[in-house]
């Protein structure tokens, strides 16, 4: 790896999207191909260096689950937002406990 950026345009080829990659100065890098594997909700990718006939081993990529900042977190400092979220979590827990208590009362009530 040289730290240089490579560029290309993905185009549909069979069940892949494929691109010839080049550095900014036009020097060829190789070919990349990607396809979506619906059963695994993942992207499968391969790279082949320029002048080679064999593809490198498959790489599988999954979407990283990351919570996006809420409007509240963007408007408030992170400490204030965290305190608010913790209080909201406690309120949710209390409401859930109350609902479970009501269900238990209905289940054990004579009748």
From TrEMBL:
Lineage: superkingdom: Eukaryota
Feature: compositional bias, Basic and acidic residues: 83-111
Region (Disordered): 71-111
Protein name: Uncharacterized protein
